[in-house]
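Submission sheet (multi-component)
Chains listed below:
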Amino acid sequence: AQKITQTQPGMFVQEKEAVTLDCTYDTSDPSYGLFWYKQPSSGEMIFLIYQGSYDQQNATEGRYSLNFQKARKSANLVISASQLGDSAMYFCAMRVPSGAGSYQLTFGKGTKLSVIP
Amino acid sequence: DTEVTQTPKHLVMGMTNKKSLKCEQHMGHRAMYWYKQKAKKPPELMFVYSYEKLSINESVPSRFSPECPNSSLLNLHLHALQPEDSALYLCASSRQLAGLYEQYFGPGTRLTVT
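Outcome: structure written.
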């Protein structure tokens, strides 16, 4: 069974500092994708970054980077130079084949990040 | 353009009402999804359409009825809902159902059942 674990229910970070949000995953499938989404209080789920299981390099998108350690099955999100607008819920998710040509997205429980001025 | 739109943003309905949620995307995506999200929880998958055909129904009660009239539109028809159905309903789309493609989400409809 596929599983995503986010062990930090809440995190605080000072504005302009970097922060790491933890995510570990479990799957027996060799082909999978890992995603991070941001959900502000308004509700929209915003796609941030993607890492494929066969990608050799860590993904980066602007201030977001994904620290992918395949052997440890971890896919931590690093946000550099935090801004007040980064305050939100962050979900780690994994997409794996679920049979009959179908793929399913499994979410972790989320981490609520609060940026302090 | 990675925009998925949803209407209405907010909906309050009684248990005897019939209402519909609407979702639209113009990215040429062939997979579309409905999720239900309760407060402080991750989204839960309800339905998946692939090439306008229902591919996945996660044992959702029949008071929720999805419809995909064309490749850009996805509706969720609501009838005889219960107060526990109050939640944020998110629509999403991806390039295809098969493959490691990211899903793009709409802003959601906040539904309150009274």
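Remark: Chain B has no helices and eleven strands.
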